[in-house]
Specification:
26% of the residues are buried. The protein has three domains: 18-154, Ferric Hydroxamate Uptake Protein, Chain A, domain 1, CATH 2.170.130; 159-277, Sandwich (Immunoglobulin-like); 284-378, Immunoglobulins (Immunoglobulin-like, Sandwich). Strand 1 and strand 2 form a beta hairpin. The strands form eight sheets. It has a five-stranded mixed beta sheet, with no helix packed on it. It is mainly β. It has four helices and 29 strands.
């Protein structure tokens, strides 16, 4: 009997707990873009309460006997006017998915009555969230239905894109569905920080991938997140650059996350926005500049450089200057819009050590556009050492005292050799002379 009473009490307690279910929301904007969100709700939650639990920012009229009216979603719509919204022929239409088609709801998102019974022929009550419902909000005149969407496109796709921010140059801003990111220019760095989330009741994902696509700018990047468990999140960074030849215009962009759970089911989420690129009238950039690491004596530094014209205007009278601590020179040139100019120059250097060469680029209006400093090592020229003549120096030896022995150079050795030869020749001549004198004396004696 006690067990029966316990089971009865437990059953009553469970009946008192509201049923929890997922309701999908599709929001379609006037420009054709759309956004979705899956809300885990309790039963008998009104449409107003449902949207309050979603990620969408909404503005409502004051409450009346007909409830509140939805005037704006994410800042788009008409202004609030008391218990209604200003009407200019367009409004936020409220649709419900019935089978495979969208139907215009016969009741509103909120009223003072009870929940609607779900029959499209009934006009009593207000909408209340039901498990598996898919609703749509579309701004327009009510003549067109929302785009084709199924419940599993919105709900039970537990992997979601959370906070997204974009940094263009040095400026950072939040990215929301349908936003336009401005201030991008050719060669501008683009960075996107993206948070990916898996719901607390989500499945265990074996493979999660995050991708960034910017159409028309040739940007298509993928980050492999890998495993993402229930209730976990991950932050990824995309670092890109606007192409040098990007034209003025607005480029569609998408961030998508795809996750495959352990059962093989694929879950997706996406946010779409746009990048606005604007070329300046004058914009010259030194994209390359360099010289040899070391410069020898009396040689100039060979400086090579490339200037890119990212501006809208052709530069017919551009100039680049080269300056060091003790020299200055320049070169005039022209470069068309979207083109590059390559050349080199010889820069004279003096002194010794590390030398700075500053390159300064000016547009046709004489305005400084870009500067770079490059370094080189200049050896300079060494002063020649004075020539010294070798002098004989006395060298004492252990076995010759006090006689002096002199060192000699190859030149002195050659001179000594010549002297010895002359002395030998003179000795020979002297010998012959003596012999002749003796012979003559002998002959004279014999004649006597």
């Amino acid at each position: 009997m006690k067990k029966l009473m316990f089971l009865l009490a437990l059953s009553l307690a469970l009946l008192a707990i509201p049923a929890v279910a997922d309701t999908g929301i599709l929001v379609e904007y006037p420009d054709g873009t759309a956004d979705t969100f899956c809300v885990r709700t309790e039963s008998k939650l009104s449409g107003y309460g449902l949207l309050q639990k979603s990620k969408f920012s909404t503005e409502w009229s004051a409450s009346s006997s007909f409830g509140r009216l939805l005037c704006k979603v994410n800042g788009i719509g008409t202004d609030v006017k008391g218990t209604s919204c200003e009407f200019n022929g367009e409004f936020w239409g409220f649709f419900l998915k019935s089978g495979s088609t969208w139907e215009f709801s016969p009741v509103g998102l909120e009223s003072q009555g009870d929940c609607w019974d779900g029959r499209f022929t009934s006009f009593i009550g207000h909408y209340c969230a039901q498990g598996g419902d898919l609703i749509a909000l579309k701004f327009g005149d009510g003549s067109k239905k929302p785009k084709e969407t199924i419940f599993t496109d919105v709900c039970r796709q537990y992997v979601q894109i959370g906070k997204v921010s974009a940094t263009v140059g040095s400026r950072k801003k939040a990215v929301s569905q349908g936003a336009t990111i401005k201030d991008a220019k050719p060669a501008s760095p683009l960075a996107f920080e993206v948070k990916v989330q898996n719901g607390a009741n989500g499945p265990d994902f074996d493979n999660v991938e995050l991708s960034l696509v910017i159409e028309g700018l040739d940007i298509d990047s993928v980050e492999d997140i890998g495993r993402l468990g229930p209730g976990n999140d991950d932050e990824e960074m995309f670092e890109e650059e606007v192409p040098d030849d990007a034209e003025d215009g607005t480029y569609p962009a998408f961030i998508k996350v795809t996750g495959t759970d352990t059962s093989g089911n694929v879950h997706k989420a996406e946010i779409s926005f746009s990048i606005e690129v604007e070329r300046k009238r004058h914009e010259l950039k030194l994209i390359e500049a360099g010289t040899q690491q070391e410069v020898g004596c009396l040689l100039p530094a060979e400086v090579s450089f490339t200037v890119a014209n990212y501006g809208r205007s052709d530069e017919k009278k551009a100039r680049i200057n080269f300056s060091t601590t003790d020299s200055f020179s320049g070169l005039d040139f022209s470069v068309d819009s979207g083109s590059e100019y390559f050349n080199s120059a010889r820069i004279g250097l003096t002194g010794q050590g590390t030398k700075e060469i500053r390159l300064s680029v000016y547009d046709s209006q004489g305005k400084l556009q870009d500067e770079q400093v490059i370094l080189t090592s200049y050896e300079g020229c060494q002063e020649p050492e004075p020539r010294t003549t070798s002098q004989a120096q006395p060298v004492n030896t252990n076995d010759q005292t006090p006689a002096q022995v002199f060192q000699s150079t190859p030149e002195t050795a050659a001179k000594n050799d010549d002297t010895e030869k002359r002395m030998m020749f003179m000795a020979i001549l002297t010998g012959y002379g003596v012999l002749l004198i003796l012979t003559a004396a002998v002959i004279a004696i014999m004649r006597r």
